[in-house]
Amino acid sequence: MSRRVIAHLDCDAFFASVELQRRPELQGLPVIVAGSGPRAVVTTASYEARKFGIGSAMSAAEAKRRCPQAITIPPDHQAYSEKSKEVWSVVREEIEVLQQASIDEAYADLSAFAKPLPMLRTLIARVKEETGIQISAGIAPNRLVAKIASDLGKPAGFVAIGREQCAAHVAGQSPRIVPGIGPKTAARLAEMGYATLGTLQDAPVEELQERFGERYGVDLHRRAHLHDESPVETTRVRKSRSVETTFDVDVADHAELEATLRQQSNRLAEQLRRAQERGRTIGIKVRLDDWTTITRARSIDAYIDDEATIIAIALELFRDYAPPRPVRLLGVRVAGFEGEASAASEPAPRGAPPGQLVLPLGV
After folding, report:
1. How many CB atoms lie within 10 A of CB 341?
2. DSSP label at 9?
């Protein structure tokens, strides 16, 4: 009988882990990785810092208020990129069907392995030994459940669970636990009386369609029950490239904002040429001081990678919008790459170590 065994592999507190390797004297202390500007946010926090309620995307200022003794380290993205390559190169030696989702997480299709769980345990131990990075794993019949499962046992988690088991296990939590259900959708669901995943599972699909539209209503119903048939893909087509700037202080001067757009366009054109990519859709992103965010885009007939065209269209879009308030974030983007239309599209055993949850795989 055919089966699917999908794993979500997630490096525990990745940026902080890399920093602690370089600063072993900080082991056991609350560490946060964040910039130094007034709007800096936490990229990663050690588990000692997380005990104080500090998490990713929290403002660095709030993190320091919650834990004044926390040690702040500025991010070193080159070091993280190099360590990421180390980790996933080891994983790829054992697993052929691997889709890297970000610098510190990936999906793996283990269906071809006769004994996927022992193999994965051995591989995770090897990654730890050779790179110093601990991976938490969720193993399930689909990507959606695997993603949820990888968070259930952190740190150093190893959770194998079936779809129905997982749906019951997290039924009391917010629908936001499901990838693809964001805060705005969760708030609208709560207004309808569906504040937990369990209540959403019992919601009539017709009611969800009436509120969210025919297609998304069905999708919400399926996600609530953790259905997912999406494959693990070994290739991923880049859809766009962008450059964004978050200002330390809101900028109201349009001349200054246009100068930023020119600089961003130059950097973006350089990225495109380096990657030998050309696109035909140029767009901008503007976030105002009240967090209103707008995007504007325009497609042209030719595929381009030159800054002159990007600058001209970006400035035209910016002037047409003419931000009515000071700007917090500004960005420029190129999409619609050559060949995009024809390219591939672009989520238990006994003897588990203490503290790890292992349930029957249910595949």
Report:
1. 7
2. E
* CB distance 329 to 246 below 8 Å: yes
What's the length of the chain? 363
Q: Which of 286, 287, 314, 311 is nearest to 298 (CA)?
A: 314
Dihedral over alpha carbons 34, 35, 39, 42 (to 10 degrees) = -10
Q: Do 257 and 323 touch, CB atoms closer than 8 A? A: yes
What is the CATH topology of the domain spanning 15-76? MutS, DNA mismatch repair protein, domain I (3.40.1170)
Catalytic residues: 105
pTM (whole model) above 0.85 = no
The identity of residue 319, as a single letter, is R
The span from the CA of 282 to the CA of 178, in Å, is: 32
CA dihedral 306, 308, 314, 318 (to 10 degrees): 170
Correct CATH for 6-13+78-166 of 1.20.810.10, 3.30.70.270, 3.30.70.20, 3.30.420.40: 3.30.70.270
The edge-to-edge listing of strands for the beta sheet with 158-160 is 98-102, 105-109, 6-11, 135-140, 158-160
**How is 166-181 classified by DSSP, letter by letter?**
HHHHTTTS-GGGSTT-
What is the residue whose two structure tokens read 């025919």? Answer: 214
Q: How confident is the model at residue 363, as a pLDDT?
A: 34
How far apart are alpha carbons 194 and 200 in whole angstroms?
5
Q: How far apart are CA 181 and CA 81, in angstroms?
A: 29
Q: Which CATH superfamily is domain 240-337 in?
A: DNA polymerase, Y-family, little finger domain (3.30.1490.100)
β-partners of residue 333 are 242, 283
- Consecutive H or E run containing 347: none
Q: Closest Cα partner for 149 from 357, 306, 362?
A: 357
356 secondary structure, DSSP code: -
pLDDT at 172 over 80: yes
Residue 189, H or E segment: helix 183-191
pLDDT digits (tens, 9 = 90+) for 84-137: 999 999 999 999 999 998 899 999 999 999 999 999 999 999 999 999 999 999
